[in-house]
Every structure is written in C-alpha cells, then in structure tokens.
Design brief:
Strand content: under 5%
Oligomer: single chain
Distance between the termini: 191 Å
C-alpha cells in the first residue's frame, strides 16, 4: 500500500470516527434531554400531588371549622332554651307564690270577719241579757 492510500485510509477512518463520535454525542444529548424531561414531569406530578393534598387538607380544616361552628351554635341554642325554661319556671313559681299569698290573705280576712261577727254576736247577746 502506498503512502497516498494509507493517508486516504487514515482520513477515512478519522472521518468515520468523528461521525460515530458525533452520533454518540447526539444520542447522549437526546438521552439527557429525555431524562431531564422525565425528571421535570415527575417534579410536576409531585407538585400537583402536593397541591392536591394541601387542598384536601384545607377542605378538611374548613369542614372541621364548620362542624365546630355548628356545634357551638347548637350549644348556644341549648343554653338559650335552658335559660328560657328556667325563666318560665321562675315565673311559674312566682305566680304560685303570689296565689298562695292571696289565698292566705283571703283566709286571714275571712277569719277576721268571722271573729268580728262573733264579737258582734257576743255583744248583742250580752246586751240582750242585760236588758232582760
């Protein structure tokens, strides 16, 4: 093989090697890009999942708050009802006491009237006896 052919082969081989290297580099770049894309997708998915979890937590917190508010309202209503019942009972007791007092007063008045009548009768009897 003469010098020209040897040089030609070297150049040819070099060119082939360069092409192969370029192809390999391109493949590596593509693989890297794909990996990056996959990583980005995974990150996005993770972010979405985190957001969804946060939203769910917020919803749960809101529901809990609403339940607590409802419970508080119910307790307040129950307290108000109890207070109203107590007031009604107090009013009834007062009315009963007033009625009892009135009855006692009436009884006292009746007794006084009876005593007065008895006294009058006694006086009349005494007068009659004195007159005889």
């Amino acid at each position: 093989m003469d010098f020209k052919q040897t040089n030609y082969l070297k150049i040819y081989n070099n060119n082939n090697n360069n092409k192969n290297n370029n192809n390999n580099n391109n493949n590596n770049n593509n693989n890297n890009n794909n990996n990056n894309n996959n990583n980005n997708n995974n990150n996005n998915n993770n972010n979405n999942n985190n957001n969804n979890n946060n939203n769910n937590n917020n919803n749960n917190n809101n529901n809990n708050n609403n339940n607590n508010n409802n419970n508080n309202n119910n307790n307040n209503n129950n307290n108000n009802n109890n207070n109203n019942n107590n007031n009604n009972n107090n009013n009834n007791n007062n009315n009963n006491n007033n009625n009892n007092n009135n009855n006692n007063n009436n009884n006292n008045n009746n007794n006084n009237n009876n005593n007065n009548n008895n006294n009058n009768n006694n006086n009349n009897n005494n007068n009659n006896n004195n007159n005889i």
